[in-house]
Amino acid sequence: MKKLTIFATTVAVFTLTVMPVLALDLGTGYLSATGLGTKELRESVMSIVNVALGFLGILAILIILWGGFRWLTAGGSEDKVGEAKKIIVAGIIGLVIILSALAITTFVVSNILTATGA
Prior knowledge:
single chain, 118 residues, mainly alpha, 4 helices
């Protein structure tokens, strides 16, 4: 019973403290006056994340190509072919992780932007 009371109190406190924050005006009217641009911080962060993940995607593709080059120049050596396969698999796993991160960040940020009315 004590744990339930502590849990209910914690949930109530966090729920009641979030409500005033939802009504907060972010004050983005000053952006046009400064001459620095009118993009909100959330949109700028998403642009930076897209560029960073795009760069990492290109890097993963280059790793896969490097593994393919190592395989082509292996000369039939099983050790070199095995090493090349490991490089290619690592590049593919990295690419899957990067694409998953891109999908997750796009989903989260787009939902945040629609929830806040931006």
